[in-house]
Design a protein that fits this description.
Chain A is mainly alpha-helical. Helices cover 80% and strands 0% of the residues of chain A. Chain B is an alpha/beta fold. Classes of the chains: A mainly alpha (259), B alpha/beta (288).
Chain lengths: 259, 288
């Protein structure tokens, strides 16, 4: 990617509105238009950020949360990818498992929290389980959809040209399914953070959600707001990473050829 | 030459050494490609059979699409197959390329000197892989035949012949319809097929691009001396390109006509018009 004046301007416009909102918020807080018990001023949030950064608490909690999010994502995502590929390629596998998976998919995974606490307590397993379960379905559904929507004419062409099953998979089917898999990936990243926030808020002894809940107990509203903002930033970071991957692997796609 | 029935495909062991083709390609300067497929003299008395249908029928349920077809096509011939929509001409091609099996009858396809199945099909749509660059798309035609540098050299050589050498590193999405179809032609030809089946490959092109493609197809066919089977519903295209025109009607061969005209043929010459009229009479004779 090139950072020309034009591209900075184009990317910069997206940040204009958040900057204005923060400015208005600060003014409202300073003039006590918003009571400090309701909302902390941005400057207070920055102070809280600095305080927690110096104490090391912030870095530790972000680290714990990120590790949970990523390991849950890797576990759930790989299982989802494997099932998606298997069910997309094999009718037998699809007949065997798809109905079951579609039934389970319709249970909101957060509804399992009480059960999960009974099973795992408030240990790491509980969070991993919930994140993995939440991430599994968007990856599974979109991988399956991606494989099923690969142009059958291209598959026929590959067969006529004598491609083996492996070659056909890597040269035709997987690249054809990749755009859909990326949609699933981005969706899953969103669900990953959402699940983690809920799980950490309800049952945890460390992590960002726990930090926010502790702050609520002591009425530290600036820390609560800070936690929420960090979640937003982490979510954005994950999404940008997915988009970068998308750009790198989908160069052929007309939608990515404008840059 | 070996004549092997389609249903008993045996895989010959391929020696790992530089082929005569590859050597000739390496020793020939660009611009003079096609050294290894020098036109065979078209000996009209003693030609090998490229493929033959013997009492071939194909039924889909109760519907008979091809009914007891007998057809011998000599090697190197350019044959055009004409018929109305749904007459079975595409089924004929699918049988020839092994995409489909006959319900009854036998079909023998000569697999060429190498003993490999070098029957290629060019579809109505280009069917390029959108995620592969042009040269890589052409290399698909060399699947199981050549790899790496050798494949790249061959694909660049054939791209040169279809006039797209400078587009080798582009994505298919930036090419025009005619250019994509030329890439598809290059992909079909890169392995030097013994038989090239063309399933209305020019049908979706505009009139000017189509004429350009017809000239390209004719000149490459003359250079490479493969057997061409062109399925089309454009009678003018058939008589302009083919040595022989087959008209299929209701699953049977209704007309088998030689076009003994010199090449290059001029569009709109009286002989072409006369033959065209004869074919159209066969197609619509019962209605006029």
């Amino acid at each position: 990617m090139k950072f020309t004046a034009q591209s900075i301007l184009r990317n910069g416009t997206g940040w204009l509105l958040p900057a204005l909102i923060i400015l208005a918020w600060e003014i409202a807080a300073r003039t006590e238009l918003i009571s400090p018990n309701v909302m902390a001023a941005p400057s207070a949030v920055v102070e809280a950020f600095w305080r927690l950064l110096l104490s090391g608490e912030l870095v530790r909690n972000i680290g714990v949360s990120t590790a949970r999010a990523l390991s849950g994502f890797v576990i759930g995502g790989s299982i989802g990818l494997i099932f998606g590929l298997a069910n997309g390629l094999s009718g037998l596998s699809r007949n065997l498992t798809d109905t079951t998976l579609q039934m389970v998919r319709n249970i909101p995974h957060l509804a399992l929290i009480p059960l999960v606490i009974l099973w795992f307590g408030i240990d790491e397993e509980a969070k991993l389980f919930l994140v993995a379960l939440g991430v599994f379905f968007p990856i599974y559904v979109n991988t399956l959809l991606g494989i099923q929507s690969v142009d059958p004419q291209l598959v026929e062409m590959g067969r006529v040209y004598g491609m083996s099953r492996t070659t056909l998979f890597f040269r035709v089917i997987l690249p054809g399914a990749l755009p859909a898999i990326f949609v699933g990936l981005r969706y899953a990243l969103g669900i990953m953070w959402l699940t983690l926030i809920v799980a950490e808020t309800i049952a945890a002894s460390s992590g960002l959600g726990y930090m926010a809940m502790q702050a609520r107990e002591f009425l530290l509203i600036d820390v609560v707001v800070l936690s929420i903002l960090i979640y937003a930033l982490l979510g954005k970071l994950a999404d940008s990473f997915a988009r970068l991957l998308e750009r790198l692997t989908l160069q052929w796609h007309p939608a990515f050829q404008t840059a | 030459m070996s004549v092997i029935a389609l249903d008993q495909q045996t895989k010959p062991a391929r020696p790992v050494k530089e082929t005569a083709e590859a050597r000739a390609l390496r020793e020939t300067p660009p611009g003079h490609w096609f050294p290894y497929a020098a036109p065979k003299p078209r000996d009209h008395d003693n030609r090998d059979i490229a493929f033959s249908f013997r009492g071939v029928s194909r039924k889909f349920g109760d519907k008979t699409v091809l009914d007891n077809i007998d057809l011998d096509v000599p090697a190197g011939q350019f044959i055009a197959v004409i018929g109305k929509s749904g007459c079975g001409k595409s089924t004929l091609l699918r049988l020839l390329t092994g995409l489909d099996k006959p319900t009854s009858g036998t079909l023998t396809v000569n697999k060429g000197i190498e003993g490999e199945n070098r029957t290629r099909i060019m579809f109505q749509e280009p069917r390029l892989l959108p995620w592969a660059r042009i040269a890589r798309n052409v290399e698909v035609g060399l699947t199981g035949i050549a790899k790496g540098t050798e494949a790249r050299e061959k694909s660049l050589a054939i791209l040169n012949d279809v006039g797209l050498a400078d587009r080798a590193e582009e994505w298919p999405s930036v090419l025009s319809g005619g250019q994509r179809q030329r890439v598809a032609l290059a992909r079909a030809l890169v392995a030097h097929p013994y038989i090239l089946a063309l399933d209305e490959p020019l049908g979706a092109l505009d009139a000017l691009t189509r004429i350009e493609m017809q000239h390209l197809l004719e000149s490459i066919w003359q250079q490479q001396a493969f057997t061409a089977v062109l399925v089309t519903h454009d009678v003018a295209e058939a008589v302009a390109l083919a040595d022989r025109v087959i008209v299929i009607d209701q699953g049977r061969i209704a007309l088998d006509l030689d076009i003994p005209l010199e090449r290059p043929r001029r569009h709109g010459s009286p002989e072409l018009a006369r033959l065209e009229g004869k074919i159209l009479d066969t197609l619509f004779g019962d209605q006029e």
